[in-house]
Design brief:
346 residues; alpha/beta; Rossmann fold; 12 strands; binds 1-O-phosphono-beta-D-fructopyranose
């Protein structure tokens, strides 16, 4: 995250500079729609982008799985801006989706990690994540880096379009500068995640719930558990629970809830109570010192307080650690999970 931010933010002025977007300022100012295309973890980073771009830059955003987009007949035109997100820069589905959008005249921006990768050569502009190579197959630091860059893009567009007040932007950018230090505190949750991993290592299935920016976090937490520990897991918006997943809840089902102090805190608290009333085992990611949820949940993982726009950067870290420890306890190869490839090139 530090590398992503270096040279791109000026907390004293409260501004963002993104050289790779500069040529498209006019287009971004007048954008009617943004389509984000990606696969897997990168798609979850795109969902965070949807929340932030719509909230701060007030541009409608659609987030599409590249693997689906490429095979349907989407309405795309030269008025659209496409943002492709990919860690490897080589994902075949994302490349095919880019080609399709390009053929219809859309401007293509990229968020990639690997300089000179195929996707970067297909894009008109964008920003690198500078996360360095991922050691394991499952994306971890790539996710936090992608979320950092898409947050910068959201602020950059808000700055251009004057849709968010300079004071608010300045506060956000100043706080963003302190996120790397807060992430270090999130890494200190490792002991707690190790302990909780013992509790869920034999689960058949796990549910992950979150609201707002906590929803993509829930999806990513579930994906990490699936990818590296082979436990079935579902991520859901917490408010969707009553529309189906609630039928799954019993005393065997661990339910991981992103329950930090955001604008939807009260609603999440009542979701936790609904799970407890059905004897589900609640593991809550909470804002440090939240005594209320400590009383309700079976296990808590405390993370530092921060603006809710930055929740994905913080809350995802303990979920990555949790999956890692569950995988170790189940004797899984965390770096090279079965059936998964670093670059899905076919
Ligand atoms: C997309 C992705 C990763 C996942 C795995 C398979 O890759 O789905 O999110 O962890 O490696 O590919 P990319 O387009 O971000 O490189």
């Amino acid at each position: 995250i530090r590398d992503c931010l270096r040279g791109r933010i000026s907390p004293s002025e409260g501004t963002v500079q993104l050289g790779g977007l500069k040529d498209y300022d006019e287009k971004l100012k007048n954008a009617n729609r943004i389509i984000i295309i990606a696969c897997g973890t990168s798609w979850h980073a795109g969902l965070v982008g949807e929340y932030l771009i719509e909230n701060y830059a007030r541009i409608p955003v659609e987030v599409e799985y590249a693997s689906e987009f490429r095979y349907r007949n989407p309405v795309v035109s030269e008025k659209d801006i496409v943002i492709a997100i990919s860690q490897s820069g080589e994902t075949a589905d994302t490349m095919a989706a880019i080609e399709l959008a390009k053929s219809k005249g859309a401007l293509i921006l990229g968020i990639c990690n690997v300089v000179g990768s195929s996707i970067t050569r297909l894009t008109d502009g964008g920003a690198y994540t500078h996360a360095g190579p991922e050691i394991g197959v499952a994306s971890t630091k790539a996710f936090t880096a992608q979320v950092t860059v898409i947050s910068l893009m959201a602020f950059y567009m808000a700055q251009l379009r004057e849709t968010t007040s300079p004071t608010v932007l300045k506060e956000l950018i100043t706080e963003l500068d302190s996120i790397p230090t807060l992430v270090e505190k999130c890494l200190a949750t490792e002991e707690a995640t190790k302990y909780i991993a013992e509790e869920i290592k034999d689960a058949v299935s796990c549910l992950f719930l979150g609201r707002g920016t906590g929803f993509p976090v829930a999806l990513e937490g579930a994906l990490k558990l699936k990818e590296i520990s082979y436990i079935h897991a579902e991520g859901y918006p917490a408010a969707e629970m009553k529309h189906g997943p609630i039928a799954l809840i019993d005393d065997e089902l661990p339910v991981v809830v992103v329950a930090t102090k955001t604008s939807s805190y009260k609603k999440v608290l009542s979701n936790i109570q609904e799970v407890k009333a059905r004897k589900g085992k609640v593991i809550a990611i909470i804002t440090e010192g939240d005594e209320k949820i400590k009383k309700e949940a079976d296990f808590v993982i405390e993370i530092p307080d921060a603006h809710e726009s930055y929740l994905p950067l913080l809350a995802t870290v303990p979920l990555q650690l949790l999956s890692y420890h569950v995988a170790l306890l189940r004797d899984c190869n965390v770096d090279q999970p079965r059936n998964l490839a670093k670059s899905v090139t076919v």
